[in-house]
TrEMBL record:
SUPFAM superfamilies per record: Six-hairpin glycosidases
Name this polypeptide is given: alpha-L-rhamnosidase
EC number: 3.2.1.40
Domain annotation Alpha-L-rhamnosidase concanavalin-like: ranges: 337-435
Keyword Repressor: no
Keywords assigned by UniProt, alphabetized: Hydrolase
């Protein structure tokens, strides 16, 4: 039966706070029959049992992003919805149900005001009396604990808390944390908009006294971010602010709202400071036990001040928040001398440690220092630059104390624990992994352990570097939303996880960071120092919206981005009327971190100019806008590129792998020269004994282009390479994440320059897209949107004897795998209902292909949905 599953509203499962006026309703499809497809659907939306919108039967194969088109949605209201689908036989097939709840839809419903600590009442900091705090942290403020006690006449039947901060907050209610978010409200371009979260707190409230509270810390708003030595912190404001309102409904229909106002009180607690880069300092003896619960005496607390009466632009959180998603146990804990332990988690991770301390005397000082790698058995921390990544706990002296620094995060594999009383047991130190909780639904696996390790490294890089925004790295004083890193890795990211809502939100910051002239930035949200985006960096503002459209059918984000995409190419064009992009190239990084093969920067820039214009043209077509001007411009840039950079023998200026890759992947060569140019590329790889020279920009194209032009063998040779430079080299030297640089560490030279040497950057992990698209062979046909038309082209090769991948697409599950069995290859594929596929069976003998029943079939097959197995001679 054809069955809808994974119902979502605006890309989320049963979201509590939706503030889009026309939310998009989607479902995916599965079926136990082959050649199944949806031919019609019906959506019924009800609220309080009353129908709000009923589409009736709609003859349509579409199962994604159906815009709600009923009466205006009411604020803070639950809507239930049900979808029924009809299959190819016209029979009514499956149905499924879901719901969403609207957020605060009208600005005038915000009655809460921004509150903050009164800077005049007590000093903003209260430094702990210890001698070795650095100047950076010595004056950091102690986070205020904010509270408000109130009395309810009865237990409510429904209660929702809406909360946010200019900073980071942890909501508390009646003695417990509310929800499971970390680092809320997340990082956006705060000058333009701040996200707020909605929590169902019905069960936490009671008749009588209740206490609502929050711990409020600097976060991205006021804390350290980035590397600009002239502007290291307080990018948005000096001190954090909090805003909340709690809506309570009683059985008799009456309501009550408790909001942030002048009646709140505050005081600092055990946390002396908390900063994302520097770490967290906590004094257990100052714990405010019971502060967030009824019955607590807060008479000596200080009234807050109203920091701002205008709510500003508050937007309901549109994607999955940061959460702790996994716990790691130490693979080893080694005592070093009397007072130190070295903990190894066996994995370069992002998050924090939870440390349990037993039987310590009061006032013992325990210090946790973090590092990604070791040098001579000790932490190597030079590459963290000014990020101190150090957490401190002063014991209170209880039988058992648990220290978990909840308002900082570090990128680390190793932790040095100093001052722990007695022997640190493995069970008392836990690695808490956190990241934006995008649903991870894709998977790749093969029978080569190094390739599997590479894939795991790619996934860990995606997790750890997605902390609210896509960042370049999680450990040093940077952690910024670099656009090139994001666009290069984005295709891989879509394979591993559903990243549509995550990217769609971040793209609003990319647009907000564009200059009035139309230049996208290098980084978003935009913090100090960086201006116009460089080639391949600024272009991320064009590439990612297009990718979301192609992968997820996300028309809404494409529409919202289209104006800025056009403005970007017009900006480049305006300053480069001869169509070779030489002017206004920003920081012009070129093929960043390439290996002794500098691709001419004007070539790289012009290739990206052409590509962005091509994508704007494609976007125009998709949106029903006149594409002709962009297609014409693209033709002219292509001609200019050929004229300027391509010789008659197919040589591309600079003669670098990346130069050829750009020319081939972006279709910039005259057809007659494609083979010759490709030959030069392949020859370059071979001449280097199967080594690459590509940096951030070229690397993503390498294996796909080699495979597309019939040299999957070379792509595999690069995949399996384990001498420098290669992915395998880092793995041979213990990498558990993707390194920023091919030579992050080499046997000859040791560590690269500490000024820039992260061991957890995802850019060079962009080969992940090829593991799915090349090795397993899952691609979309040209022109296909949302995996409607598949091109399945598994590539048997290298030392692999089996490989496969699966991913959840907006249609449903797609899978492709192959294995060698003697002189046979067995191929298994799965195509979701409503999709079709061209399958290219990898065989040396096209006449040998058999289907499951043993009947001969062609080696190029057109398949409709279902699960298939084919066997052929290798
Ligand atoms: C580094 C960042 C990032 C890269 C830029 C150019 O500082 O880590 O990865 O995009 O430089």
């Amino acid at each position: 039966m054809l069955t809808p599953y994974a119902l979502s509203t605006d890309g989320r499962t049963t979201p509590l706070g939706v503030d889009e006026r026309t939310p998009l309703l989607s479902w995916r499809l599965r079926s136990d029959r082959d050649a199944d497809a949806q031919t019609a659907y019906r959506i019924e939306v009800t609220t309080g049992g009353v129908t709000a919108w009923d589409t009736g039967r709609v003859e349509s194969a579409e199962n994604s992003a159906i815009a709600y088109d009923g009466p205006t949605l009411r604020s803070r209201t639950r809507y239930d919805w049900r979808v029924t689908v009809w299959d190819g036989s016209g029979e009514e097939a499956g149905a499924a149900e879901s719901w969403f709840e609207t957020a605060i839809l009208h600005a005038d419903e915000w009655v809460g005001t921004w509150i903050a600590r009164d800077p005049n009442v007590h000093p903003p900091f209260d430094p702990p009396v210890v001698d070795d705090l650095t100047d950076r942290v010595r004056h950091l403020p102690a986070p205020p604990h904010l509270r408000r006690s109130f009395t309810l006449p009865a237990k409510p039947v429904r209660a929702r808390l809406h909360a946010t901060a200019r900073g980071v907050y942890e909501p508390r209610l009646n003695g417990a944390k509310v929800g499971d978010r970390e680092l809320a409200p997340g990082w956006t371009e705060y000058r333009t908009r701040v996200l707020y979260q909605t929590y169902d707190v019905t069960d936490a409230l009671t008749a009588g006294e209740n206490v609502l509270g929050a711990v409020l810390v600097d976060g991205w708003y006021a804390g350290f971010i980035g590397f600009d030595s002239r502007h290291q912190a307080q990018h948005y404001g000096d001190a954090p602010q909090f805003l909340a309102q709690l809506h309570v409904e009683f059985a008799d229909g009456s309501t009550r709202t408790i909001a942030t106002d002048a009646d709140w009180v505050e005081r600092p607690g055990a946390i002396r400071y908390a900063d994302q880069l520097m770490g967290q300092y906590e004094d257990g003896s100052r714990e405010l036990t019971g502060w967030d619960a009824p019955g607590y005496d807060a008479s000596d607390w200080t009234p807050v001040v109203i920091a701002d009466t205008a709510p500003g632009t508050l937007v309901a959180e549109p994607d999955e928040p940061v959460r702790v998603t996994e716990e790691l146990t130490a693979v080893s804990v080694t005592a070093i001398g009397a007072d130190r332990h070295l903990v190894d988690f066996g994995q370069n991770m992002v998050g924090r440690v939870r440390l349990t301390v037993r039987g310590a005397e009061p006032g013992r000082r325990i210090v946790l220092r973090h590092a990604e790698v070791l040098a001579d058995g000790e932490l190597y921390r030079e590459n963290l630059r000014t990020a101190e990544a150090t957490d401190v706990y002063l014991t209170a002296g209880g039988a058992t104390e648990v220290f978990e620094p909840r308002f900082t995060f570090h990128g680390f594999r190793y932790v040095e624990v100093t001052g722990y009383p007695g022997v640190l047991a493995g069970k008392d130190v836990v690695g808490r992994v956190l990241h934006s909780d995008t649903p991870f639904t894709g998977h790749f696996e093969c029978d080569d352990e190094t390739v599997n390790q590479l894939y795991r490294n790619i996934r860990w890089g995606q997790r750890g570097n997605w902390v609210s925004v896509p960042t370049d790295c999680p450990q040093r004083d940077e952690r910024l939303g670099w656009l090139a890193d994001a666009q290069i890795f984005a295709p891989t990211a879509t394979r591993n996880a559903d990243v549509q809502a995550f990217f769609a939100r971040w793209l609003a910051d990319v647009r907000a960071a564009a200059t009035p002239e139309g230049a996208f930035p290098d980084i978003a949200p935009k913090v100090a120092m960086l201006t116009e985006g460089a080639p391949a960096w600024g272009d991320g503002g064009v590439i990612i919206p297009w990718l979301l459209y192609r992968i997820y059918g996300d028309v809404r984000t494409l529409e919202r981005s289209f104006g800025s995409m056009v403005a970007w190419i017009e900006h480049v064009h305006r300053h480069n009327p001869d169509l070779i992009w030489r002017h206004r190239t920003g920081n012009n990084y070129g093929d960043w971190l390439q290996v002794d093969a500098e691709t001419p920067r004007d070539l790289l820039a012009t290739a990206y100019f052409a590509q962005s214009v091509a994508l704007v043209g494609a976007a125009a077509r998709a949106l029903g806008v006149d594409a002709q001007p962009y297609e014409d411009l693209h033709g002219r840039i292509r001609a200019a590129f050929q004229n300027e950079f391509v010789e008659d023998d197919g040589r591309v200026e600079g003669d670098t792998q990346t130069g050829y890759l750009l020319a081939l992947a972006f279709d910039l060569l005259p057809p007659a020269l494609v083979d010759r140019a490709f030959h030069r590329l392949a020859a370059d790889v071979e001449k280097r004994d199967n080594h690459l020279t590509t940096g951030f920009v070229g690397v993503a194209l390498l294996c796909p282009v080699l495979t597309k032009h019939g040299r999957a063998d070379l792509a595999y040779a690069l995949l399996h390479q384990d001498t420098y430079p290669s992915w395998g080299y880092s793995i041979a030297h213990g990498a558990t994440t993707i390194w920023e640089r091919w030579d992050g560490w080499t046997t000859e030279r040791g560590f690269q320059a500490a000024e820039m040497n992260s061991f957890n950057h995802y850019s060079l992990g962009s080969i992940g897209d090829w593991l799915f698209g090349g090795v397993a062979g899952i691609e979309q046909a040209p022109g296909s949107v949302g995996y409607r038309e598949l091109e399945l082209r598994p590539a048997v090769g290298g030392r692999l004897t089996r490989a496969g991948a699966s991913q959840e697409t907006i249609r449903g599950r797609v899978a492709s795998s192959w294995r060698l069995d003697g002189d046979q290859v067995v191929v298994d594929v799965e195509i979701p209902p409503g999709s079709t596929a061209n399958l290219h069976v990898p065989t040396s003998d096209p006449s040998s292909v058999r289907d499951r029943s043993g009947s001969p079939v062609a080696d190029q097959l057109r398949l409709s949905s279902g699960r298939y197995r084919f066997t052929a001679t290798r």
